Request: fold
Amino acid sequence: MEILSKVHARNLVSWAADKPEVVVLSADLTSSTEIDLFRDAYPARFFSMGMAEQNMMSFAGGLAREGVFPFVHTFAVFIYRRAYDQIADSIAYPNLPVRMFGFLPGVTTPGGATHQAIEDLSVMRSLPNMTVLEVGDATDVETLLDPVQAVEGPVYVRMLRGELPRLFPKDEPFRIGQARVLTRGTDLALLSSGICTEEALRAAAALESRGVSIQHLHVSTLKPFDDEAVAEAVSSARKGVITMENHTVLGGLGTATAELMAGLGVGRPLIRVGIQDEFLHGASRPHLMKEYGLDAAALVRAVETLLHQDLGIGEGDLAAVRLENVHSAAKAEAL
Amino acid sequence: MQSAATSTNNWTDDVHRVARGIRRRVLDHTIRNNGGYLSQACSSAETLATLYVRLMNLGPSVAPPVPPAFPGVPKAGRRAYTGAGYNGEHAPERDRLYFSAVHYALPLYATLIETGRMSEDGLRQFNQDGSTVEMIGAEHSPGLELTGGSLGQTLSQAGGIALARRLRGESGRQWVYMSDGEFQSGQTWEAVQALVYHRLDSIVAYVDVNGQQCDGKMTDVMTIEPLQSRLEAFGARVVSVDGHDPEQLAAPAEQAPDGRPTVVLAYTNPCQGMPLMEARRPKLHYVRFKDEAERTAFADMLRGMPR
Reply:
């Protein structure tokens, strides 16, 4: 698997070269959110707003009203938890094109409950006018900006940084409202998002070898949730549907899928693999994925439940975990 | 810089005439509807009149004299409608007003009428279903272009606009009208800090320091004083004035920009011009008459108020 480093940092600089209307706002996490290269390349379009997110979000609304496109970067928790009222009134109500990049989703940081965004998708999905996206690999990250900038209103992106795997072909760009079909099958539909797609792929060979037929989709648009391919997948799965997300099961991919299935009248079981309505704590990504049941082994258990059979898949049958270097040149600090 | 409402040689006479009109209209409305934001008119009348008559470089209204019906909330495919047209067309050299103290919407609408920017029929739509003339003004309401009803957000939004206008090389200034209660909110201080840091000196904020908020006297709720020295410590240019004296109100805004945002603390009396209000202290945020006798007394006071 190809591993890339600081994908967003480089991509943003090249993408913004011919877009003078794009500015970047930072809240004291410039290197940590990969906007240091932008700052160095375009200092006149980089605005340091300090550790003051409420002002930053309303300020972004003011800029967007005047035809400037603010690309707000900070850790996700500091966007939606610290400044929700400002997002609602200064950005979402007037439907302004502010682009919010929220880093450190869920288990991707050992920073503990204060740094781990576990309900951001739920909160942002429920805001009218908001488009909600999540990336899962390097190709998603480096092909995301054109579709984001084409959206009329505000966009929240659940973002990844540091060392990223390339899971999807470089020439198949991110498209809003279009899931990536990874495998085709008829027994089960598996909808995974964000880093859970990489994790689900660890179980792919073992499940295939046991003859399990899975329609696996990587879902990157949480709102609007109107992708025909997703509707088709949940409708045609004979034995049931599994969602897998690095997020609480309340309000994210699992909930959106449940709403979709109920609306379509799909009367089959749904298992929502995700954080079961509790906070995380500071620990490594593999540790948290195991502890909270977000890993490939949890997916195998969900498959076994829906198929009513023991597939005899042990840890040794799963592909090795890709271990990110916690102290890496790809990140400003170990957070 | 003077607006089209000028009719005499002395602009302070115009300010006082408009201020009297604001008080009369808001009082008349409050009597008719048995409720209204009356103390806000008492404290803000001279400041709003000075802004519109003397200070702001605004073009004539380009909005319909009688405000249009509410066109619906902004959403995909529907352009946001704002009430900015009552303050004239946006232009690089023109000023803008960002009205943060949106509970003062009724005095603002009265100001628009007194300065010939809105028909007095507009006020009949106040708080009526389907109208833009809302009780708590929002961006679609006459004279407004931002949604600040949560309070404490408008100064930050104005900062973003000031920055965007500076990037475009525009010379127009940003006037922000605030209430003192907003200085209890952390975001206001975040905003001042950012305006100072980014040297957004096109911002001039007028603050109605009437010492009143919803629960009563601010000193009984949460003290904000000493406001001038607090703001100065943040790096703002601050002037404290008698908020009922037009010449004092106008003087600080006539200083040349010097890199700092300007904050004018207009110290006001929430009962100014309406002696009957004194008996209602300390709860002045919203006036609903206790009985018919009180309402009649206020109606008598209205008949005696000078034009």
Q: What stands out?
A: The domain at 11-63+80-304 of chain B is CATH 3.40.50.970 (Rossmann fold). The two ends of chain B are 25 Å apart (CA to CA).
